[in-house]
Structures are given as structure tokens and as C-alpha cells.
Queue: 2 jobs
Job 1
Amino acid sequence: MAAETLLRGRVLRFVSEPKAPDDHGSYLFDEDGGVLIKDGKVKACGAFASLRVTAPDATLIDHRPHLILPGFIDTHLHFVQMQVIASWGAQLLDWLNNYTFPAETEFSDPAHGARIADAFFDEMLRHGTTTPVAYCSSHPQSAEAYFTAAAARNMRVIGGKVMMDRNAPPALCDTAQRGHDETEALVARWHGKGRAEVAITPRFAITSTPEQLEAAGALARAHPTCPVQTHLSENHDEISSTLGLYPKAKDYLDIYHSYGLLGPRSLMGHSIHLSPREMGVMAETGAVAVFCPTSNLFLGSGLYNEAGLAEAGVRRAIATDIGGGTNYSMLRTLDEGYKVLALRGQKLTALKAFYWITLGNARALGLEDKIGTLAPGSEADITVLNPAATPAMALRHARVETLAEELFLLQVLGDDRAVVETYAAGVARKPG
């Protein structure tokens, strides 16, 4: 009989999207709770005393007084951009040409890809992220490195080889046919194997010809369980350049729609400058708008309209967007997201924030049956947080009176130092 592990602590998990700062019905919280783990999955979750009675021989790991939550989920980032994070002074298109594309050419070397992939997953786990959704480079070997490193840590991941056949250095360009074939080979090798999913990944319309977007649409039709990820309406110059390349399109989103790339598992990175028509189409197709606050601020791209998208019925997610994003931490991302929305006259409550990076992002990915919940039968991806991890946090924590205040403290002051442990499929994985 396989051994069981029982984590003890203050256990929080969400059941619905919070609609108010004090929406107590949106979550379950056990002040003295437990998570019982067996074979990499959650066997039970609830009051510690009850779980201990049912599993007296389980190995006990006592995390009190820390918070135990589902592992964080990051829905948009570029693992191949680790070495361009914190590159100074450019907006989107210049930043890509000056920093990103030169760095990505190095991923033709499998050894380089393997080294960066190992560093990437160490950072994910150090910051409490158990599921990243990543863009690799246009080289299929970069995706091999990504999925191999994830499998070694038994992490649930989504990733894809970038498809791009124009407006980039020749060393980064594939062709419509090669991009299709290399993606299809990755699907055959990795999709649904272990805890991996392959995303169909045309970088964005500027770097794909109509023929390549047609090939991406063919992949989406042939492999309907594969997510689709791309970029949409991040920057005004980007939008103008895109429409110049596709003059018959009604708007930016219409390009992707016309090639069959919109659906419930389509992740549209940024989605800042959307027209009412575009919001309506996203709501109709179920496509997801992915909020990337630190990169939007860093590159001066614009302010995401969470309330407007919600009112239009658009599904939403949140992400770091490394390396245009400036921090690997979902906690730091929530802090900057709060500020972006405040500039919009909107507020990100603490409950909504932690829902977003757990169950909310799981729902955006269509994976809420597997991650983001701590429900029995779900995968035991877990993050343990200490809201008094630093002297400044401890000083503030002494005045905390409610769970929402504690979460907001973590949201504003937390980072990787607040992450006590990260479990992937029930195994402690945070690097030392």
C-alpha cells in the first residue's frame, strides 16, 4: 500500500470567483486544516483532526501557522527570455528586436536550452508556481528542453514551439510547413504524456504569414485538445503594424478568428486595447484575455480593463509574462495588477487575487478538474505561504485581523521569501 502524507496548516481553497471583498461563500478555509496526499493526488482535504483519524499512519508535515493553498498557475510567459528580463528602455517592438530575438537565437543549441529550462523551473518552484504556460523559441529543441525539465520535476505544464515565418531574424524563422510539422511532432511526443500539454503557438500576427496562420488553424482543428496561445493588442504600434499586414481584417482579433484560432482554450496574451466588437467575439468564442501587469507597465503598453472585460463576459487570466514581465512571482504580479486596475478606477480584492492565481487560472486553462482546487482526486500541487516571512511583513502581520487582510499583505509585500514550500504532485520541490 502506497504511503500517505498529511500536510497540516491553515488551508485555503476557492470554490467560486469572489464577488465582493468579504465574499465568504467563495472559499473554504480551515484554521487547523489538512491535505491528505496519496500517489501524487489529493485524497482528502478539510479539518486536520478528522483527517488524522482516517489516516493515523500518514507521514505528518506540520506547516502551522502557515497558509496552505493550491499551487500558483502562470498562464503566459516566455521561458526563453530569462536572460533578457530587466533589459532597459524600449517599447514592445523595439524590445523584441533589440533584446528578445537575439537571445532566442541561442536556443538552437540544445545544451543552452537544457540549462535555461532547469533554471526556469527552479525559479517557478522557488516562487510557488506549479503550472506555467510558456512560449519556447522557434526551435523545437527548446520545447524538448522545456518538457524534459518539467517531466523531471513531475510538474503540470503547457508549452509550445513558437511559429514565426517573417519579420524576425532568419535564424529564428521557420516556414508555414515547418512550423506546422515541428509542432505536430511535439504534439505526438509530449501532448497528454505525463503532465504535459502542447500549445499551438503562433507568436503573433506580425511574425506569421497568412499561410502560417492557416497552418496553425489546421493544427487547432486536428488537435482540438491542444490549447492555442498568442499575443493580442498589447501596444498601439503593434496593432497598427498588424493591420497593415492584414488590411482586410475588421480588427486585430478578426485575424485570429478568421483562421480558426479562437476557442475556450485560446489564451490571448495582453488583450489591452480591445474594441467592443472584439470583446464580444472573445465572449462568444470563450477565448481568454490574459492580464500581464508587470510587462504592460514595464513596456508602457497600456492599462488592462478587467471590469470592462468582465462586463462583456470575457474569460480572464493573469500572468507574469517573463521576460517583458519583471518578476517571476505571482504575488508580485498581483501587487502590480492591483495598481494597474487602480489607475483604471477598479479594485482587485485580496480574495479575487488569490482566486485568480489558483482556481481562476485553472478554469481559464480548462484544468480545474486537475489543479487549482485541492479537491479530492485533484493533483497535489500545493504552495505554502508565510505571511510574516520578512521583518516588514511580520510587523504588518501583527495588526492583521482577517483572512482578507492577511492575503492582501501577501499580495502587496510577498515574494519568493514568503514561499515556505512548493509541492508538485505531492513532492516537496522548492529549491534550497
Job 2
Amino acid sequence: MKKYLRYLPPIHELQKSPIFDRIVQKYGMTRSRLTNICQEELDKIRKQLLQNEWVETDQNHINKQYWMNEIFRRVEQKVEQQSEYYLKKIINATGTILHTNLGRARLGNKQIEHIVKVAANYSNLEYKIAEGKRGSRHEIIENLIQKVTNAEAAMVVNNNAAAVYLILRALAQDKEVIVSRGQLVEIGGSFRISAIMEESGAKLVEVGTTNKTHLADYEKAITTETAMIMKVHTSNFKVIGFTKSVGTRELAELKNKYDNLIFYEDLGSGVLYNFKNDGIGDEPVVKDVLAMGADLVSFSGDKLLGGPQAGIIAGKWELIEKLKKHQLARVLRVDKLTLAALEATLKAYWMGEDELKEIPTLRDILQSEEEIMKKALKFQHHIMEISDQYTITIEKDYSQVGGGTMPDVKLPTIVATIAHRTLSSEELSLRLRLSKPSIVTRQKDEKIYLDFRTVTDDELQEMVAVFQTIS
């Protein structure tokens, strides 16, 4: 293949080509940037030829024009890839509402509108409008958290792992923290309670066993060096059978027997809406945990709350003040866009039931089978109209909440199982993922499963268009 090196066009000839000008205009690039990309692709081809790695079945038509076309094909493909954002819209047809790989909670229209307004303008992020003086970003949503949890005070950091770390570092460094062995959990990304405690400088004191911990185990472990009793809600797994754990109220009563002892409960997901009233799971409501006597609680913003990624800390005023004044509070603080999204989310909880329907996470968890069935049947009807390449049936199935929450909860749902006449389920799944927008599905028994619990009406129409292009 080395003999074809002489046909490779020089850069100045590529620059004179009308294709060069078309790419510049189409993608809004500078000529110098496009020249660099052309040079890169030209060098790659030259290297392949020199190493006899170039593969071409019909070598008779290799000439200068052939290389011009091949170089510009590669260049435009590269430019198109580079011009796209890495983060892309995905239609989640898995039925897993808080899909960690797909960004967990999606935001509603009012949350997004508030983010856009704050992002596009100057705002009173750290400014008191009435007084004309500097303010604190802690104040932006503290009042809302107080209203929806009945906490004395509150603050926000960038995620719940950060909340756990800040609390342990600021309130229990070089002191003992008592935790049940059954609650020394590991969550996504190999985040372990024991490891974060070690990093914080707090001294872990394990009590009880994996399946059973009694109140007496905690009481026996309390010494003059004990700063905190920590209860970790095991939201990402369940231990069943011969088990025993100590409840929030009992631990709060034990804490009250000792001066300067803090009782902190890490709720993990954390809920403000009582799903138990709808027969869904047994997640403790933040307000109830505080009412039972916890001094501090922390929980995530982007899980069952249905907001942005954040770690919310609520509880006693004097403890929250210590956390706010700690140097790590600045390191772990959130930006204005997170605060805007969280403010809109919490305001929905404060406003009541009608507003809560605007939070996609709650809407999707509480969605009825009848509502999901309507979308599934609509999709089936459209697919049968546009193509005869698919076999599609409607079936009952179960959705997951996801995000490490409610692991034992199965939400009855409706799915469309779909198979293509010539494409395997693997091939069809790949084409759906590579489509615009990308569609992520479940696969089972050589069929694609589409769960419409996590698909909106607008997304349904987009899905139909994608399936049409594949057929």
C-alpha cells in the first residue's frame, strides 16, 4: 500500500476544496481548527499506509480524489462527534424511576424554569435585597426545609455522602460514634459508612451483630469519649428473618439520659411524602424522625425527594450552626443552580398535593396501572400502523424505584414486549441506544421490554419515530 502515498493530497489542496468551506460553514469552525483536524486524519492515513494496515478491497480506483473523499469523510465524522455534547437526552424505558446510570431524579417544568431564570440573570444568591447587604446562601432554602420537616434549622451540601462526612468531622472528630454492625452499609461507588467515618477522624464503635442489635448493646458502649449515636437507614437492602434493630424513638430516649450526646440518623434517600399511605414501602418520613427525637438527620435531594443532587441536613439549631461555621461547609457548598432546583422542589412540598404532581419522581411512583396501560396501548397502535417488522404484545410486569431505594418494593406496571423480524434483541437494543434521542430498555428472552411508567406522552411520540427509522 505504500505506493499510494503519492496520491495523498497536501493540506493546501484540502483547504482549497469546496468541501472544506462547507464544513467550516456548517459547524461554525475556524479554518485553522479544521486545518488541524485535516492534518490529524492525513497523518493517521499516512501511518496506516506505511505500516501496511490500510484495508481496501478495490485498490484500482485509489487516486487523489479517492483520498480527498476519504479524508473529508473522516474529518466531518470527527467534527460532528466533537460538536455534540457528551451529556445527551435519554428516554428511560426501563421503568426504573431513579436510574442511577441515567441521572436519577428528573426535574419538572417549574424546577427547570426556576433554574433557567436564575442561570440567565444575576440573583440574590448572597444578597439581602431589603437591607442592601450581604446575605448567606444557607438562608435561601433553610426556611422551606424548616416548614416541610419542622426542624429548628437546616443547611445543604453537595450530596448526602458529604453531609455524613461533615457531620462526623465537625461534631465527632477524635471521639467515638456508636453504630450497629447491621447498618455498616456500602452504597454505590464503594462508599462505606466505616470508611467515611475513618476519613472524618471519628472513632467507630460497632455494636450488636449483623442481624441483631439491642438497646442494651448501645448503652453498654457509651463512654465519656462517646460523642454520637448514629443510626443508618439501610435503604438499599433488607435483612429479613431472625432480626432485631433499635428504633429511632428508643435511641432518642437513650440519648436523653446523657449530657452532650448527639443522636444522628442518616436517612439515605429521605422522604417528605408518606408513601406508606399509598401502600408503597416503609420509608420513614423526615418530619416523623425529627419528631421522635433525632438531633440531626441527613438525606439526598435527587432520590425520593425528586430534586437535584444535594445533601440536606436538618435538626437542632445549635448543631446546624456549628456545621455552618465549619471550614468544610464552604468546601461542600452547592451552587446557585442546585439551590434554584431545590427551592422549587421544596416549595412544591410546602404548597401541597396539587403541586406535588409536578415532581416527576412522585408522579411516576404513584402512577396507576391504568395510566400506564393507556400509553402502552397507544404505542402499540402507532407501531402497528407504521411498520410490519415488529411483533408487539402488552403484558403486566413490575417497575423498580431504583437509586438504592425501596429495594423490596415492586410497582405493578404495564410493558410492551417487542421483537424485530430480522434484528436480534441485542441488535435492536444497540440501535435504540444509538438513536436520537437514545432509548434505553430492558432485555429478556430475546425481546425488548418497554416500561411506560418512566415514559411521558411526548417521549412516546419520539419513540415511535425512532422505531420507524429502524424498521
